[in-house]
Amino acid sequence: MNTLKTLMSDKRILLVEDDLIFADIIREVLTEAGFNVQYAEDGLAAWNLLAAGDTDFTAILVDRLMPRMDGIKLLTNIKATPALDHIPIIMTTATSDAGSIQEGLDTGAYYYLIKPFESAVLLSIVKAAVAQYYDYLAMQESLQLTQLPFDFLVSGIFNFQTLEEGSLLANSFAHACPKPEKVIIGFNELFINAVEHGNLGITYHEKGELIENDQLFQEIAKRQALNENRNKRVEVCFKRQTDALVFTIRDQGNGFDWLRYMNFEPERAFDPNGRGIAMARAVSFDSLEYQGNGNIVVVTVNIRVQ
Questions:
Q1: E runs forming strands in the chain
Q2: CB 241 within 8 A of CB 156
């Protein structure tokens, strides 16, 4: 999850506090703890900042009572804005009466600090809010990566055109298998071979030269734009058997001399390419079999019978 890791390395806190002395104390404590603190002197200043597009905050500390725009109004605006409503709000207040706290809770402030508070309490609340933020991001990223429900799929036909599409499909297929970290290697290698060598006709030697000249991806894009290649797809047929998952991969190329690539030959050890099929056969699948002239390959992944 590269996006999540990037955001976690920049723990930004928006501090909204009209008491300058109190704000300096909070900022010092949080900065020493490794947080990046952005300061706004009141609710209106904070809202102007957020409305202008500066929204990458992991939590917002908001004083309850402030001039121009108080904490409740700022909180209401934040929760009404889809780009902001997931950011945890920590409400700081000088009063602990139940009515005020309930109002904040009803508006969306689930973290509270009663002034004055100790540094340890401040840090514990901020860290809890930030943890909530990261949990939210992880769940959203997980939703984006949700795999196809293969547990309920008996058979299906999929097709793709580009390497990027193939990578996404490989990810989905791998998660349906017992050892996805191994299987995904094989799917990617076979899908790359189907696109580059099969549909686009890039030969073994051509690929080696393109890699050495750092021109492979430019050549792939160039060939995919050709009229004769624009409609070419790689088809993957999935079938669930009692004790195995079977994937049949078919490209629209003329095939190739696949037999010599089933094992990695010593004479090709110094070439920059040509290892994929042998790796897929040895590491990823329980069986790998090319058919006909080589534009069809069938791979099997054994599954445990319940």
A1: 12-16, 36-40, 59-63, 89-93, 111-114, 155-160, 234-240, 244-250, 287-291, 296-302
A2: no
Domain containing 89: what range? 2-144
Q: Two tokens at 297?
A: 């390959």
The sign of the dihedral angle between the CA atoms of 34, 38, 41, 44 is negative
Phi and psi at 71, nearest 5°, equal -65, -40
Residues 109 and 183 in one domain: no
Torsional sign, CA 164, 169, 173, 175: positive
Q: Could you give the C-alpha distances from 151 to 83, 148, 241, 277, in angstroms and in order?
A: 35, 9, 12, 27
Q: Are residues 117 and 91 part of one domain?
A: yes
SS3 of 178, please?
coil
Lookup result for tokens 């009692």: 242
How does pLDDT run across 117-167, given as a tens digit for each residue? Answer: 889 888 888 888 888 888 778 766 644 555 566 778 889 999 999 999 998
Q: Do 38 and 157 fall within a single domain?
A: no
